[in-house]
Amino acid sequence: MSKTPQNFVIAIVGPTAIGKTALSIKLAQHFNSEIISADSRQFFKEMAIGTAVPSKEELSAAPHHFIQHKSIKEYFSVGDFEREAISKINDLHQKNPIVVMVGGSGLYVKAVTKGLDYFPEVDANIRENLNLQLENSGLIPLQEQLKTLDFEAYNTIAIDNPQRVIRALEICIGTAKPYSSFLTNSEKNREFKTISIGLSADRSMIYDRINQRVDIMIANGLLEEAKALLPHKDLNALNTVGYKELFAYFEGESTLEFAISEIKKNTRRFAKRQLTWFRKDDAITWFDYETNIEAIISHIDTQIK
Predict the structure, then answer these.
(1) Is residue 115 over pLDDT 60?
(2) Which EC class is the enzyme in (predicted)?
């Protein structure tokens, strides 16, 4: 009997603004493959500029999936993404043994490559109580509570996302154990092998690239995009860096100059958390963001063989 050929997912990860999209397109073109986006901010069709959705030219350079396929009004969880992405990858593997996946949302990448961790059921009243605290006192006291109960989770989850903070807190409170203790790293069986490529740079270079990207977003019309979304600002999808700071400006809580500086600061913090998350994965091979594409393809070819 002939051996069934191995299927592969090439996962491109790293901090925001590092060049993951450009690399993913080059790899998809080289392997005549298609791209799965694992960027949870790019799922929503109403958010394009502030989430750095690939340009029309980039989208036409290689087939993309999970880009602007949902509305901000639709609920789309990481579990939903896991199921749909695995199904799509299995379909794509019928045509080509290689699929490229790209994204900076660590939990979404992990959901596809390794599967999600199991969390026990906890009393629904805990979440209700935490939501009430959020409504009455804001996010900062909840962040501080998580910092006390689970410092590791505080440093790795999307700490500016109330839903993630409340999820971690309800597990801490409901089980009397840290949320992070349930991150078992036990992997689900997948019908493919993952080759993980990380892009990085010196921190100052990452921060410079972020600052430049924010300036480009503003020049490309981020203010107009955010203003149109202001009526929906309470939706979870819009509790996102680049939008919430401008919502505060529109409502007279800050100047435009301050809002833009906050977008840059909060994006830099996000990049730092991304690196903290990805650096814990020993399976990732890291390359400088300026590495020649041939060197990366050579590494992938070696892994495939």
Answers:
(1) yes
(2) transferase
CA–CA separation, 167 and 20 (whole Å): 29
Q: Is the pLDDT of residue 3 over 50?
A: no
Question: What would the two tokens of residue 163 be?
Answer: 């839903």
Local structure of residue 253 (DSSP, 8 states)? S
Residue 273 CA from chain centroid, whole number: 11
Is position 15 annotated in a ligand binding site? yes
Q: Any known ligand binding at 231?
A: no
Report whether 14 belongs to an annotated binding site: yes
Residue 18 is assigned to a ligand binding site: yes
List, in order, residues 6 or more apart from 146 with CB less than 8 Å away. 153, 154, 159, 165, 168, 169, 172, 179
Q: Residue 183 has what pLDDT?
A: 79
Residue 252 is assigned to a ligand binding site: no
Residue ranges and CATH numbers for the domains of the chain are 8-117+184-304 (3.40.50.300), 124-182 (1.10.20.140)
pLDDT tens for each residue of 28-72: 999 999 999 999 999 999 999 999 999 999 999 999 999 999 999
Query: Which segments of the chain are extended strands (E)?
Result: 8-13, 35-37, 64-65, 98-102, 193-200, 284-288
Measured CA to CA, the distance from residue 267 to residue 222 in angstroms comes to: 15
Helices 124-137 and 140-149: crossing angle, nearest 10°?
Answer: 130
**For range 196-218, the mean pLDDT:** 97
Does 20 carry a binding-site annotation? yes
